[in-house]
C-alpha cells in the first residue's frame, strides 16, 4: 500500500461518527469504496459488519475505528496519525459462513455471516431441530430456544454469551453452540472443522416456527438451513499492532 493511500471513509449514523467522517474526509480526502486502496469504517461492531456485507466483495482492506457501543472488531479512535497507523497495521483475514435457508413457503434465502448464523424459536414453543454434519445425522432432536454456528471472529460475541467456546483466529474451526438446550440437557455443542457442512432441519415448523439470522439478516419460518464456510470469499481487517484481533481473542479466554 502506498504512503498516501486513497481512503474511503464510511460512518454509522451516530453523531460522533458523522462528525469524525467530516473531519477525516476533510483532512485525508474522500474516495468511493470501489476506487479506494483502503476502507476506513467509523462506528461500532454493528457498523463494521454492515461495511463487510456491503463492500466485502471489493477485496479492499478495512481499518475500523471505534465510535460506537461495541468495538471488538475496531481500533481505538484517534484523529491523528491515521496514515502511519494504516501503514503499520497488521492484517487479519476472515472467512465468512455461507447460509442457505429454505422457508415454509418454498423460497430460498442465502446470506453471509462474519460472526454467526443463529436459529431462534419464534414463539413461546421450544424449537425442535435435527442436526446433521456432512450428510450424517448427529443429533436426532435438539429441544431448545435455538442453536448457532460461529466463526472464530464471532466466537467471543453471542456465541460466548451462550456458553460456547472461544476459537483462536486461524484455527480453521467453527463453533456449534445450543441456546438454552432443554434436551439433551447436558449437550454443550461442538467444535468442528471449518469445512464441515452443517444442516439444521426444523421439526414441526408449523407448531414450532423458527427464524434464522446471519449476522443481522433475518429469515423467518425456515424449515431447513445449510451452513458452510465460504470457499472463495475472504475479507481483510487491519489492526494496530498493540490491538490486534488474535491477541484480543486470546485475552478474552482469561477474563474473569
TrEMBL record:
- GO BP, sorted A to Z: NAD+ metabolic process; NADP+ biosynthetic process
Stated EC number for the protein is 2.7.1.23
Q: Which Pfam families match?
A: NAD_kinase_C
Enumerate the subcellular locations listed in this protein's record, separating them with semicolons.
Cytoplasm
Enumerate the UniProt keywords alphabetically. Answer: ATP-binding, Cytoplasm, Kinase, NAD, NADP, Nucleotide-binding, Transferase
Q: Care to name a GO molecular-function term for this sequence? A: ATP binding
Similarity section? Belongs to the NAD kinase family.
Q: What is this protein called?
A: NAD kinase
Organism of origin is: Pseudoxanthomonas suwonensis
Lineage at the top is: Bacteria, Pseudomonadati, Pseudomonadota, Gammaproteobacteria, Lysobacterales
Amino acid at each position: 500500500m502506498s504512503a498516501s493511500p486513497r481512503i474511503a471513509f464510511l460512518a454509522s449514523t451516530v453523531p460522533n461518527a458523522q462528525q469524525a467522517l467530516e473531519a477525516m474526509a476533510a483532512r485525508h480526502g474522500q474516495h468511493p469504496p470501489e476506487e479506494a486502496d483502503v476502507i476506513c469504517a467509523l462506528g461500532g461492531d454493528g457498523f463494521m459488519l454492515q461495511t463487510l456485507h456491503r463492500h466485502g466483495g471489493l477485496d479492499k482492506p478495512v481499518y475500523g475505528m471505534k465510535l460506537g457501543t461495541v468495538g471488538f472488531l475496531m481500533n481505538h479512535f484517534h484523529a491523528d496519525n491515521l496514515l502511519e497507523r494504516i501503514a503499520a497495521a497488521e492484517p487479519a483475514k476472515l472467512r465468512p459462513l455461507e447460509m442457505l435457508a429454505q422457508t415454509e413457503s418454498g423460497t430460498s434465502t442465502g446470506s453471509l455471516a462474519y460472526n454467526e448464523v443463529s436459529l431462534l424459536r419464534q414463539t413461546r414453543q421450544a424449537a425442535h431441530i435435527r442436526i446433521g454434519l456432512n450428510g450424517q445425522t448427529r443429533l436426532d432432536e435438539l429441544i431448545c430456544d435455538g442453536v448457532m454456528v460461529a466463526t472464530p471472529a464471532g466466537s467471543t460475541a453471542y456465541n460466548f454469551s451462550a456458553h460456547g467456546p472461544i476459537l483462536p483466529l486461524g484455527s480453521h474451526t467453527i463453533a456449534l453452540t445450543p441456546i438454552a438446550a432443554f434436551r439433551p440437557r447436558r449437550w454443550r455443542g461442538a467444535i468442528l472443522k471449518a469445512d464441515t457442512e452443517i444442516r439444521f432441519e426444523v421439526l414441526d415448523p408449523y407448531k414450532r416456527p423458527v427464524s434464522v439470522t446471519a449476522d443481522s439478516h433475518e429469515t423467518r419460518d425456515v424449515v431447513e438451513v445449510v451452513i458452510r464456510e465460504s470457499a472463495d470469499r475472504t475479507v481483510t481487517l487491519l489492526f494496530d499492532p498493540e490491538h490486534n484481533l488474535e491477541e484480543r481473542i486470546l485475552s478474552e479466554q482469561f477474563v474473569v
